[in-house]
Amino acid sequence: MIEQLTIPFHYEYMLKAIFVSALIGGVCAFLSCFVTLKGWSLMGDALSHSVVPGVALALMLGLPFAVGAFFAGLLAAAAMGFVKAKTPIREDATIGIVFTSFFALGLLLISLYPTGFNLRTIVFGNMLGIADFDILQAIAICGIAMAVLLAKWKDLLLFCFDANQARSIGLNTTALHFILLSLLSAVAVAALQAVGACLVVAMLVTPGATAYLLTDRFGRMLGIASTMGVLTAAAGAYASYFLDGSVGGCIVVLQTTLFLLAFAFAPKHGMLAARRAGRKAVTTTLREVSA
Predict the structure, then answer these.
(1) Could you give the CA distance from residue 241 to residue 279 in angstroms, rounded to a whole number?
(2) What family is this protein classified in (predicted)?
């Protein structure tokens, strides 16, 4: 039995997949706490899809696809900000227009100028076939992103919680806005290889949302989300060997399962806790009325 369970560790490609998945899962989960607090879930979805034309252009020019993807993400974020500032259109509509336009442009470029790069790799990821260069690229992106997050997490926390208060105490909220967008674009690029453009938003939102249900303290939320991100990503990559399924699919299903458990059983913010609190409030009210 134990010998059967250790089979995935005999293959180099599985060891690479588990290691890189855990690395990306941890960084995405750490960042997801800020995304959840700021309410930027749609922004993460938009940026993950908006990187596709950057990938296509980078491949056409013979550059690493991460370079094109990163700058395409920043360009998309700038386009959203410009449209929102210059028109009365609501933010959700602005995000929808920009990210679908970028995604469509990417699909058009790839269809007009085939480069041999499989479109499925961008859309659904290909962790089991990850190359050594892509591993180094993911390590570099995750290392830089974590260094910035650890150095600026208190400023980013205040900016995400209340931008007006952050501005009133002298913080440069424009720079913090740009830093958070840049981190979101960079981490989305790193996660693209693991789960693809369709599922990357789940890794950038679900761990933070789950931890948000479990604690009211942000430091503890970072710890819970990061641990969950690392463990579910490694376990998802490991389980994909036995299930013969998509690595990204396994990771996101695991994370969604934990979210549903927290949604139902979280001690303070879960559904059952809310029902208990509601019944207790009704009982207390009835006792006060009868007294």
Answers:
(1) 46
(2) Belongs to the ABC-3 integral membrane protein family.
- Given this model, what pLDDT does residue 256 score? 94
Which pLDDT value is given to residue 118? 66
Instruction: Kindly calculate the radius of gyration of the chain based on its CA atoms and give it in whole angstroms.
Output: 21
CA dihedral (117, 120, 122, 124) positive or negative: negative
CA 192 to chain centre: 10
- Percent helix, strand, coil in the chain (nearest 5)? 85, 0, 15
- Helix, coil or strand: residue 96: helix
Q: Where are the domains of the chain?
A: 1-290
Helix 91-112 / helix 65-86 crossing angle, nearest 10 deg? 140
Mean pLDDT of 206-220: 92
Rounded distance between C-alpha atoms, residue 50 and residue 44, angstroms: 10
Residue 28 and residue 267: Cα distance in Å, rounded? 25
Both structure tokens of 130: 């990850």
145 token code pair: 């992103």
* Type of residue found at 40: W
Taking alpha carbons only, the member of 183, 193, 194, 189 closest to residue 67 is 189
Of 195, 240, 231, 229, give the one whose Cα is nearest residue 7.
Answer: 240
Sign of the torsion angle spanned by Cα atoms 266, 268, 272, 274: negative
